[in-house]
Q: What sequence folds into this?
């Protein structure tokens, strides 16, 4: 009897020996995964906190879409104040210092690389539609992140040549332990463009989910990029390709000007929905922002945007025309930009005839009925288009790189001025302060990076 | 003659008859002390097999039934040498020899075996039943505080008024940087991860803390932080049925509201608000379309500014408000004297062939906060059946049911010091919160739904009811196979279900706020005007299986072998769910979650928003472990002991390669009884023992992973699932290991009048996991749940534990002193990566938790502070040293800040600690009190931060001591109030609040508790055989001396309010 019990016990022990391997393979937290399926990668790309809610604030703070009154300025946070006065030493003091434009955009690049690497391991599936769409989205986001960074942390691109000019570190692998150096500016722009053109092959023309990129989004970004690099013929081609996919605009006359926010989020002009980081104590916050008076004067009585973008407050105006439908600023891609890119590119290569029909459509959507434009010489039309651009693309983070490229490429001499306590301060065209400094904590962790001059 | 003869014959026959009867029936015997001849009460009598036969009564007598003449019995009693004799005649007198040379024959339990403390080489702290019964708290862990050598209670993050108990335990300091430092808790034989509060302390017989490698290695990869083994009462060796009742009531004083440092007097606060108002600080808020709330004082100032004729009225009102103090209201309406009751009844016994223990316990607690109460009910049975001489079966059932109730939601009550909980009109006062009061009043005039927050009316408009049911079933069998060899099998099943129901009634502020926010212009709100119900559920199920071989044998005269080897595996599944129901009608039990969550509705005061989606979440965690272990102890001629243990553990840590899931851990130890050697024999030396052990323990961190992992959630606005990368993956992942040396001396002198032990230890931890910050250019930022853990660290921990028991007087009046002293310190010895700098560093300096900043050569518990250079004599601004000059450029200072510039000589966890307990007994009275002390540590005093003071009304007492005019810098370190331009320099507050200026010495001496007990005389009216004791116990009696001059309790340095003193009265009856 005793021997038998002993035998059974031993068997039990032996059995347990046998099945321990698989038994220990179960996941501890059922919600944790090792990203390995297409669904996993799509889920990574759908992380809106990473991709859609953290686009640049810095450039907008330093632009001339707005101004801030002295007493309001006093109560804004330190970093915001310094950004407003174009201080040489910009302090990144977001609530967690790691979350700044540098880190935010490199996070997008990291996620994109994780997806690209993961998808490349699944070569077998590369004909599956979902695989292709994911791949394209990842390429787009990597390019988007690099683009944002290039406009903030690199000097403006010179069409004549950029040898010896520093660009960005370009991580093309998802390895967090590497220490990257800064590549050249040409290489940087090259990488951005490459990723975008490749993405077009993989992306669907449009996306129902507006937080995800589409081929249309790539075309808009490409047209924008080519305007920056002065490749106007290319810009035209991309803009036309985009318009072939979709060419609808909102009719502003249909929107009420009484609403707190006349535009609805993800409205039909929105192609890619992203927003700027939200900073309640910033200079762009509701209570402080006042629309630049010179800008405001540009909207005439027939311009439907006057009442739909702006709201009177005291003696000035504040902005309410966000394409997000809330107090967050829209920083994504829209049909309005596509149209304006198209117009500008066509005019700069001397093809004004092709834009007539579209321009009429544009005017009918932004002005009261019956508003007419006198067509004279190219120069006047270009002027008009650039003014339209100025009036339409406000508070979107676009003005910043427009100023940079126009000063650099077209010799526009746009000078920014601000009045602080009676003193006038100026940001000259091509001032080194058009480039921001890499955050100090990044430099302390990577000695290979070279800081920008400011 | 014939008559006499027959008479004698008759008598003889009777005698013979009597003898025969005795031979088959029973024997009477007595047990006495061989020296004093006093009766020994409660001596146990067993047969040659060890089965229980009888126990002696108060006269030392016992009776044996159905014995055969000449049968061998073993008689033993605590403090005496065991005797083996044959029963030959009745009325035998057994003399037991007292053995004062043996340490109280303490049997410690390691969870795998019971070993006598004297025979082991390991380092144990043993808390016996009388020490557990000395205090009255409802949970066992609190009862261990200040009476256990080597055990420290770290309450730095504890804030009882937030309901945050935040206490962490440390056994012999800390030896990990990022993994858990909590000791493993073992209940009887198996690890217990459940809530400790569910075990009734009245069911606990003893607690053993396993402190060194030899003691703890048997637990392997979980033992690096020490092990606390809780042994529950059973029927073993208790003889006849014993019935016990214990009950007590405890009253806890209301917490002292005026202790809180988060206060500024109403008069000063209003003056501050006037000053800020004058500078236009509130202008942006006033003009904001979001209508953020402004305080009552500011609203009055606005009225005054807009209409100068109201000036006198406003001034008068502000003057009245200056005299208010919300703490009076809190004390009066929201707190009460707490009262807690305990009742416990147990029946135990060990008749032949079985031991049993059954108990029932009930606790009821009415908290200091008037809305909170809780209760607990426990039922325990423990049985062992000696089915056959070689087969024992064990079966335990342990059931607990607990309930926690809360009836009101109170928040933001102290937002302004002049808040009135009870208005002058006799109606509950309304507190400004959320949005501007007049905006709310206008809105509610239109909506018809009250939007004001009146805390006193919120009572009974919220109900939270948490019910927990826990069941533990334990069964085992033990089979004696061969001579000394036995096989043990054990199985434990536990299940726990917790359900918390939180209901927000439709008239609660929480609901009314939502209804008003979503109110549309047609007078109907998009948010249903009904209750909200939330159900949180947790479900735990687990089992443990163990198969173990034990071998206990005496080989020859000199060698005793005690060995075991076994296999065990465990599984624990924890599931959680949260569900929320809107539009909940409590009478009809209906709800409606079919609302439009997609459309963005206009909301008040401005903008649009979607309806909040009802919470719904599910979680599931599975823990699985497999282990193989073995232990051997050899004892030579009762003088030398050698022990060794080996264990291999594996667990289902996610993503870790299979061959790294397990790791072997071992220990060796030796002990020598110096007192048994001729060289050490002295008349006054009862016992002297030397112990030395060394071994490896391990530590587990479930946040680490060798491969990249991501976490799924659902994005409620897009409806899509999304994933977040939590861990970038680290293929070089290894286990944390700690090598422990322990040298100990146990001694007993002067006939046990001086007893104690001293242990010196050193722990070397290697392969410690640490968060590694990587270049953000690579895109992975370590924050929140994201971890990048790499094995790069090492640290050294050293210390000393001393335990002394002195009995200066031992006659009819006995005085006994128990002293504990501990000293512990650690140092990080390897930390590979560059220290933090600038802005990142700023978020970590002055933090009240260990490990925010890690630096080689410095203790993990170091308090990092900025050096303090005083205040500027003209402005009262804090001064910093920049480029060797005094400066006020805080931004530049922070930008160049590095760890080398910080001061770190002080540490945050007491380096020295101890307690002194005096016990006096005289006749039937017993009195004791415990004084505890801590020294060698510092804490950061909470102080004023002007930025949060202005923007979030976060008040602090230090404000009233601020610099106000030149010359003040001689008497105070608190900077002058910040100008509005300065508040956004977060730097100005930081260079003061994280500096040495607010560092305080934590040394203190505290009177922990006092106990008076009286044992009622035995032939009291209760009856014979009944022993009754009444006692009074006072706990948390106050600090006798403290080093800091601000009256802060250094133990709870971050707590807003302190728990009050408590007094209990209780009764114990044993029958």
A:
């Amino acid at each position: 009897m005793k021997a038998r019990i002993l035998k059974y016990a031993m068997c039990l022990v032996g059995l347990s020996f046998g099945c321990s391997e698989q038994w220990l393979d179960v996941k501890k937290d059922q919600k944790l995964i090792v990203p390995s399926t297409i669904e996993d990668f799509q889920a990574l790309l759908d992380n809106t906190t990473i991709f859609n809610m953290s686009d640049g604030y810095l450039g907008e703070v330093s632009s001339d879409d707005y101004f801030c009154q002295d007493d309001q300025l006093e109560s804004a946070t330190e970093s915001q104040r310094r950004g407003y006065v174009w201080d040489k030493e910009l302090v990144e003091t977001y609530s967690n210092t790691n979350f700044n434009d540098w880190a935010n955009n490199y996070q997008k690049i990291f996620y994109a690389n994780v997806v690209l690497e993961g998808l490349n391991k699944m070569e077998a599936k590369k004909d599956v539609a979902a695989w292709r769409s994911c791949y394209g989205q990842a390429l787009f986001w990597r390019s988007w992140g690099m683009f944002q960074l290039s406009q903030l942390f690199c000097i403006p691109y010179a069409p004549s040549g950029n040898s010896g000019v520093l660009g960005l570190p370009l991580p093309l692998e998802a390895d967090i332990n590497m220490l990257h150096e800064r590549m050249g500016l040409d290489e940087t722009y090259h990488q951005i463009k490459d990723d975008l053109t490749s993405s077009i092959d993989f992306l669907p023309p449009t996306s129902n989910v507006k937080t995800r990129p589409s081929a249309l989004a790539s075309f808009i970004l490409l047209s924008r990029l080519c305007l920056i690099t002065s490749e106007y013929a290319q810009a035209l081609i991309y803009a036309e390709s985009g318009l072939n996919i979709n060419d609808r605009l909102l009719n502003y006359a249909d929107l009420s000007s009484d609403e707190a926010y006349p535009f609805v989020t993800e409205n039909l002009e929105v192609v890619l929905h992203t927003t700027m980081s939200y900073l309640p104590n910033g200079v762009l916050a509701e209570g402080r922002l006042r629309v630049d008076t010179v800008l405001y004067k540009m909207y005439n009585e027939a311009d439907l945007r006057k009442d739909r973008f702006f709201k009177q407050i005291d003696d000035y105006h504040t902005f309410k025309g966000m394409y997000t439908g809330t107090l967050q600023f829209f920083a994504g891609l829209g049909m309005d930009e596509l149209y304006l890119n198209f117009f500008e590119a066509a005019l700069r290569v001397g093809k004004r005839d092709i834009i007539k029909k579209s321009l009429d459509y544009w005017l009918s959507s932004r002005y009261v009925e019956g508003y007419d434009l006198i067509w004279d010489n190219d120069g006047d039309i270009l002027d008009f288009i650039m003014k339209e651009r100025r009036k339409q693309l406000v508070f979107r983070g676009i003005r910043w790189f427009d100023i940079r490229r126009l000063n650099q490429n077209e010799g526009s001499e746009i000078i920014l001025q601000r009045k602080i306590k009676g003193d006038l301060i100026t940001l000259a065209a091509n001032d080194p302060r058009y480039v921001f400094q890499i955050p100090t904590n990044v430099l302390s962790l990577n000695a290979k990076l070279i800081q920008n001059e400011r | 003659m014939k008559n006499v003869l027959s008479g004698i014959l008759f008598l003889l026959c009777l005698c013979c008859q009597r003898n025969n009867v005795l031979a088959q029936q029973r024997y009477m015997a007595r047990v006495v002390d061989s020296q004093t001849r006093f009766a020994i009460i409660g001596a146990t009598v067993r047969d040659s097999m060890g089965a229980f036969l009888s126990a002696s009564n108060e006269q030392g007598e016992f009776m044996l039934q159905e014995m055969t003449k000449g049968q061998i019995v073993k008689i033993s009693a605590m403090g005496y040498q065991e005797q083996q004799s044959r029963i030959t005649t009745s009325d035998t007198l057994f003399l037991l020899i007292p053995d004062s040379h043996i340490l109280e024959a303490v049997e410690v339990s390691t969870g795998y075996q019971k070993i006598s403390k004297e025979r082991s080489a390991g380092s144990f702290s043993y808390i016996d039943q009388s020490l557990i019964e000395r205090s009255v708290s409802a949970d066992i862990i609190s009862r261990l505080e200040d009476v256990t050598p080597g055990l420290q209670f770290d309450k730095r993050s504890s804030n009882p008024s937030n309901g945050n108990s935040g206490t962490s335990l440390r056994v012999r300091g800390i030896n990990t940087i990022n993994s858990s430092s909590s000791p493993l808790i073992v209940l009887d034989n198996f690890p217990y991860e459940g809530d400790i509060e569910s075990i009734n302390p009245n069911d606990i017989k003893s607690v053993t803390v396993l402190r060194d490698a030899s003691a703890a290695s048997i637990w392997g990869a979980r033992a690096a932080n020490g092990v606390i083994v809780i042994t529950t009462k059973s029927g073993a060796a208790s003889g006849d049925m014993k019935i016990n009742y214990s009950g007590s009531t405890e009253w806890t004083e209301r917490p002292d509201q005026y202790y809180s440092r988060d206060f500024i007097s109403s008069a000063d606060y209003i003056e501050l608000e006037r000053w800020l108002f004058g500078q236009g600080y509130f202008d942006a808020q006033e003009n904001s379309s979001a209508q953020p709330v402004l305080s009552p004082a500011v609203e009055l100032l606005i009225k005054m500014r807009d209409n100068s004729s109201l000036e006198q009225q406003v001034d008068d009102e502000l003057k009245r408000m200056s005299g208010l103090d919300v703490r009076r209201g809190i004390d009066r309406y929201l707190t009460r004297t707490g009262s807690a009751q305990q009742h416990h009844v147990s029946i135990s016994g060990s008749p032949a062939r079985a031991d049993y223990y059954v108990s029932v316990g009930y606790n009821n607690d009415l908290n200091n906060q008037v809305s909170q109460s809780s209760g607990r009910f426990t039922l325990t049975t423990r049985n062992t059946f000696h089915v056959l001489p070689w087969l024992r079966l064990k079966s335990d059932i342990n059931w607990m049911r607990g309930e926690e109730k809360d009836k009101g939601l109170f928040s933001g009550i102290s937002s302004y010091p002049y808040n009135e909980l009870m208005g002058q009109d006799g109606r509950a006062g309304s507190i400004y919160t959320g949005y501007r009061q007049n905006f709310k009043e206008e809105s509610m005039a239109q909506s018809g739904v009250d939007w004001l927050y009146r805390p006193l009316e919120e009572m009974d408009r919220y109900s939270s009811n948490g019910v927990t049911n826990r069941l533990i079933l334990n069964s085992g069998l033990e089979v004696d196979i061969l001579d000394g060899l036995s096989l043990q099998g054990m199985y434990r099943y536990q299940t726990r279900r917790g359900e918390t129901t939180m209901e927000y009634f439709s008239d609660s502020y929480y609901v009314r706020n939502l209804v008003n926010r979503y109110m549309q212009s047609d007078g109907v709100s998009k948010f249903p005007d009904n209750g909200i119900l939330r159900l949180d559920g947790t479900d735990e199920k687990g089992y443990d299986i163990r198969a173990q071989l034990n071998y206990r044998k005496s080989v020859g005269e000199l060698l005793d072998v005690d060995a075991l080897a076994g296999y065990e595996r465990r599984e624990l599944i924890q599931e959680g769910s949260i569900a929320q129901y809107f539009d909940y009608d409590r009478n009809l039990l209906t709800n409606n979650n079919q609302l439009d969550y997609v459309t963005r509705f206009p909301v008040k005061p401005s903008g649009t928003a979607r309806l909040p989606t009802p919470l719904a979440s599910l979680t599931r965690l599975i823990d699985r472990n497999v282990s193989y272990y073995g232990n051997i102890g050899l004892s030579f001629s009762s003088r030398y002991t050698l022990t060794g243990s080996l264990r291999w553990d594996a667990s289902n840590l996610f993503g870790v390669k299979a061959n790294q899931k397990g790791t072997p851990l071992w220990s060796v130890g030796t002990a020598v009884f110096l007192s048994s050697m001729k060289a050490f024999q002295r008349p006054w030396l009862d016992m002297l023992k030397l112990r030395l052990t060394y071994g490896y323990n391990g530590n587990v961190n479930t946040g680490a992973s060798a491969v990249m992992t991501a976490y799924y959630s659902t994005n409620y606005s897009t409806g899509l699932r999304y994933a977040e990368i939590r861990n970038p993956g680290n293929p070089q992942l290894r286990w944390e290991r700690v090598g422990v040396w322990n040298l100990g001396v146990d001694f007993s002198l002067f006939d046990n009048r001086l007893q104690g032990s001293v242990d010196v230890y050193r722990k070397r931890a290697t392969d410690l996991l640490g968060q590694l910050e990587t270049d953000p250019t690579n895109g992975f930022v370590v924050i929140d749940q994201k971890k990048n853990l790499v094995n790069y660290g090492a640290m050294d921990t050293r210390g000393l534990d001393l335990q002394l028991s002195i009995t200066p007087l031992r006659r009819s009046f006995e005085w006994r002193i128990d002293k504990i002293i501990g000293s512990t310190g650690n140092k990080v010895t390897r930390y590979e990566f560059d220290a933090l700098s600038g802005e990142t560093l700023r978020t970590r300096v002055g933090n009240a938790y260990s490990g925010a900043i890690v630096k080689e050569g410095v203790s993990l518990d170091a308090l990092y502070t900025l050096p303090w250079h005083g205040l500027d004599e003209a402005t009262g601004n804090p001064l910093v040293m920049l480029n060797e000059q005094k400066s006020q450029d805080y931004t530049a200072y922070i930008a160049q800040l590095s760890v080398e510039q910080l001061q770190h000589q002080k540490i945050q966890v007491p380096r020295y600690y101890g307690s002194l307990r005096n016990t006096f007994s005289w006749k039937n009275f017993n009195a004791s009190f415990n004084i505890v002390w801590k020294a060698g540590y510092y804490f950061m005093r909470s102080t004023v931060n002007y930025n949060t003071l202005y923007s979030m009304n976060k008040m602090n007492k230090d404000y009233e001591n601020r610099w106000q005019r030149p010359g003040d810098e001689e008497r105070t370190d608190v900077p002058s109030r910040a100008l509005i331009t300065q508040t956004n320099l977060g730097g100005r507050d930081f260079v003061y609040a994280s500096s040495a200026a607010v560092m305080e010495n934590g040394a203190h001496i505290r009177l922990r508790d006092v106990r008076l007990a009286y044992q009622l005389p035995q032939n009291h009216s209760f009856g014979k055989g009944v022993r009754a004791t009444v006692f009074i116990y006072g706990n948390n009696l106050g600090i006798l001396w403290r080093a800091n001059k601000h009256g802060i309790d250094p133990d709870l340095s971050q707590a807003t309010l302190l728990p009050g003193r408590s007094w209990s009265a209780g009764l114990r009856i044993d029958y």
Q: What stands out?
A: The two ends of chain A are 89 Å apart (CA to CA).
